[in-house]
Amino acid sequence: EPEVTQTPSHQVTQMGQEVILRCVPISNHLYFYWYRQILGQKVEFLVSFYNNEISEKSEIFDDQFSVERPDGSNFTLKIRSTKLEDSAMYFCATQGLAGGNEQFFGPGTRLTVL
Amino acid sequence: GESVGLHLPTLSVQEGDNSIINCAYSNSASDYFIWYKQESGKGPQFIIDIRSNMDKRQGQRVTVLLNKTVKHLSLQIAATQPGDSAVYFCAETHGNNRLAFGKGNQVVVIP
């Protein structure tokens, strides 16, 4: 069964450092998303991406965040200067053009900002 | 603001019994609802979905009920098994594919 993969599984960084979280979508999926989940809280939408551009972003997704598909395969989330409050699980989700609105989630990257 | 929320934080259920998890939503424009299951250390896993033009949908051991009048969504799990122990989230969207999740409801299955 195809699945979304994410790397790394756990990232520890110092405050102010840049991090890049990577996602490999399910093949042939065209819609990509990043969500985050702060420990003990609900999953929150960050950004959606389609046709090589951002479709929608939440208020969380400020200028410190960016997304791209640098090689047409991997989908990345970059946080330019991490803050303590960026510590969370970050989930990538992908969605095919057909088949309804089901989004398939990856296993997540746990980001810890010290 | 618009929100999706769950009524009960934790549900303990005996193995073999049926489970019911409830969810309230406030956005009347929502047209698609999904239940996700999240096990510890893993990403949300799709369980079942329902569109706003339906009031009931059944899957394998799971049933989702939608009451648009009172903006209520429920997930019924038949013959609950130990592997059903997880946090269950309802989520909604209204056309733009952006999912809005509820806070989550822990289900604990007692063997």
Global structural class of chain A:
mainly beta
Count of β-strands of chain B: 11
Looking at the structure, what is the overall shape of chain A?
A: globular
C-alpha geometry of chain B: globular
Radius of gyration of chain A over all CA atoms, rounded? 13 Å
Distance between the termini of chain B: 40 Å
- N- and C-termini, Cα separation of chain A: 37 Å
Question: How is this structure best described in words?
Answer:
The complex is a heterodimer of chains A (114) and B (111). Chain A is mostly beta strands and 114 residues long. Chain A contains no helices and 11 strands. Chain A has strands at 5-7, 10-13, 19-24, 31-37, 43-50, 53-57, 65-68, 75-79, 88-95, 104-105, 109-113. In chain A, strands 2, 4, 5, 6, 9, 10 and 11 form a 7-stranded mixed beta sheet that branches. In chain A, strands 1-3-8-7 form a 4-stranded antiparallel beta sheet, with no helix packed on it. The radius of gyration of chain A is 13 Å and the shape is globular. The mean pLDDT of chain A is 92. Chain B contains no helices and 11 strands. In chain B, the strands form 2 sheets. In chain B, strands 2, 4, 5, 9, 10 and 11 form a 6-stranded mixed beta sheet that branches. Chain B has a 5-stranded antiparallel beta sheet with strand order 1-3-8-7-6, with no helix packed on it. In chain B, strand 9 and strand 10 (100-101) form a beta hairpin. The chains are: A mainly beta (114), B mainly beta (111). The A-B interface holds A 4, 31, 33, 35, 41-45, 48, 55-56, 58, 91, 93, 95, 100-108 and B 32, 34, 36, 41-46, 49, 89, 91, 93, 96-104.
Compose a concise summary of this entry.
The complex is a heterodimer of chains A (about 110) and B (about 110). Chain A is mainly beta and about 110 residues long.
Provide the descriptors you would attach to this structure in a database record.
heterodimer; A: 114 residues; mainly beta; seven-stranded mixed beta sheet; four-stranded antiparallel beta sheet; globular; B: 111 residues; six-stranded mixed beta sheet; five-stranded antiparallel beta sheet; 54% strand
